[in-house]
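Why show two proteins at once? Because comparison is the fastest way to build intuition. When a single record is shown, students tend to memorize it. When two are placed side by side, the eye starts asking what differs. So, the first record is below.
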Amino acid sequence: MFLRLIADNFTRRPRRKFLTAAALSLGMAVATAALSVSLDVGDRLSEEFRSLGANLVVTPEADSLPLEIGGVDLRPANAGAYLPESDLPKIKTVFWHNNIIAFAPILELRTVVHKHASVGESGHKGQIEPGTEVPVVGTWSDHVVHLPDGGTFNTGASKANPWWTVSGRWFTDDTNECVVGERLARISGFGMGDIVGLRGGDIGSRKAAQLDDEEIQASISENRPCRVVGILSSGGSEDDAIVVPLAQAQELADKPGQYRKLYVSALTKPEDDFARRDPRTMKPDELERWSCSPYVSSIAYSIKQVLPGSDVRVIRRVADGEGKILTRVQTLLWLVTFASLLAAALAVGASSAASVIERRAEIGLMKALGAGSGTVGWLLAAEQLLLAFVGGCAGYALGLLLARFLGTKIFGVPPEPSLLVLGVILVLASAVTLLGSALPLRRAAHFDPAPILRGE
């Protein structure tokens, strides 16, 4: 009889039931979209933030006195120790190896330059004089790293610094090719197809002003040629440099198999107070929990363990900016969710109060026939829960469409449907319905049947 009463009452007054279910569905749809995007927003924003560049920098531990201003390393490019290139595959063996999406070693030096071809594809003569000193940056462009487990990993500056744009193309790592920074190209007249000669060794490391005419002529005749295949625009110091394959820079600097600095781009989660603690002061269980969280500091700690003699530092201006933006976006999504739930609760409460007033005679008759306050309350609550189930399912379906639209517009990729979100939405719909109708149901359960039956 209890189930028959619920089914009968649910089909009565369809217009009121439809309006209540519609209000609940809209609230649950907004909550579904916000929760779906919120669960996905961390990974999506972290991927988008990688366009800001690397968030970790690795340098030799022997450089014990770093000189940094605003996150920019101001130490001389050729000062300090070097790190072995052969250790780089170990980076992909750390616990969070899947979060490391790119890394690029850097070897910087200054050398004298000579342009072999008087006219290249650029169609104009170079303005740079033989023996002029220019900065040279050695790195990988699109390099295949062979991992200890037998796999391979493609990485390089084009992936670690995706905002670097090249007019033309990147050099190939195993060829005598290079790209020239746009400011240097504009000043020097270097263009696509030109052959640039670079002088290494002792002469390459000395100031051009210290070279006599014989040394300049020697540098011209013994230089290492490379063909310009692209013009680089980075917005940084690389715009004033010639960027060459790492192996060529190692040959110029006479540092075979070594690099000076390593930039690492890793997917991370925003740091909290726990993440900023010193791992040396943690208890074993705390260290395990800290290491098993993709904080930028814990990933830096893991990299330091596999690269002997290295010092891994977080580029705070990148990492902190990611954390602040992600926190604000998630806060906004939670506020939208709370507002939608509050609106749904108010709508359900208003509909429930109107329904209880309309059914005063029915409730009074049930109580006069022996129904207790608890029975009446459970009957009305069961009707509301059935309404919450219907509204929650409809809101979930509508919310998935809204989440796909938002995900596609904001991140280009829609979030995946989740049974976890469906369960949470049904629980929220039930809670919102019961909270919104709590006062009307309590009032109905305490009706005195005698005045009602007398028509008062």
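Second record. Ask yourself what differs from the first in the token line.
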Amino acid sequence: MNPFSFRLIGTDGTARIGEITTAHGVVRTPAFMPVGTQAAIKGVHHDDVRASGADIMLGNTYHLMLRPSAERIAALGGLHSFMRWPYPILTDSGGFQVMSLSALRKVTEQGVTFRSHIDGAMVELTPERSVEVQILLGSDIAMQLDELIALPAERAAIERAMQLSLRWAERCKRAFERAPPGRALFGIVQGGDDKGLRETSARSLTAIGFPGYAIGGLAVGEPQEVMFDIVAATAPVLPPDRPRYLMGVGTPGDILGAVARGIDMFDCVMPTRNGRHGLAFTRFGPINIKNAHHADDPRPLDAESRCPAARDFSRAYLHHLFKAGEVLGGTLLSIVNLYYYQDVMEGARAAIAAGRFADYAAATQAQWAAKADKTPDKAGGA
């Protein structure tokens, strides 16, 4: 089995291009990971996900441990076999969903106890159990259990959660010693919008030692400039020879801004969630296909796109699908968005390699802005 490794190929300013090697293949960075919450990209076939250019998919520990259960997936050959995705998989720890979905929960030093959203049963998720679930799932990259809190918050509350997450990181690392060779566990930097706490968290995690590091607790309602400020202050504290993952981000503009600040990996439900609600991300900016002025428009979303759904269907037809309540509409726009996100990442990788990332980001954003200024689709834009 191939060991996990990261190779930093080059830099352009603080933007980085590299490769993550896993037992199930190579992940080109900067990378966007589509979110397969329940071992599926909602409404999209895995072959379309792969065709879009995705090297890696994300699975959700919280949902899979509750249904169908990690033990059942392990008995059926592990997550790669279960979902027929033979490429790299990253699983989150379940902590975010516990904090966001469970109305009744209790956080202690031991872990977090919560009520299942499926059947109301009380479930305990400890650092050890989170790691056990992820080992059973068989993901190539697992995440430590952490506690995150919504912003804004008092500094004392942010520091308490950050310190608890550090203690949980140590327990997760010890528990992960049971994992088969070739897998990796990432630590998660916490600290809210406080740069000092972020630096403390990053340095402490580095001292514990992980093959990769994530920045968590952002994209939780804070302004974009605050997120960028925290990323810019945190990324340089992390080891340059390890991948850096900004969790839960975001719009194409968020991603380009974070790549410029040294981030290698991203995930977000936005491409598929927005697609199901009629919003397409394109090189012309966001297009709300449900707007009435698309009803008679014979043009495709993008005649030059490599995505068949963006290139071969008219805007009028896509508009009709949503007006008629046809599920196909959401599927097609989800595919359009997955392709576009991967196109943004491929463009970023090529631009970094050529030493022109700043020009690429500026030109891409200028094209979004030029289109958004001229159409009623600018609402909800990137």
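One difference worth noting in the second protein: Residues 212 and 242 are 5 Å apart (CA to CA).
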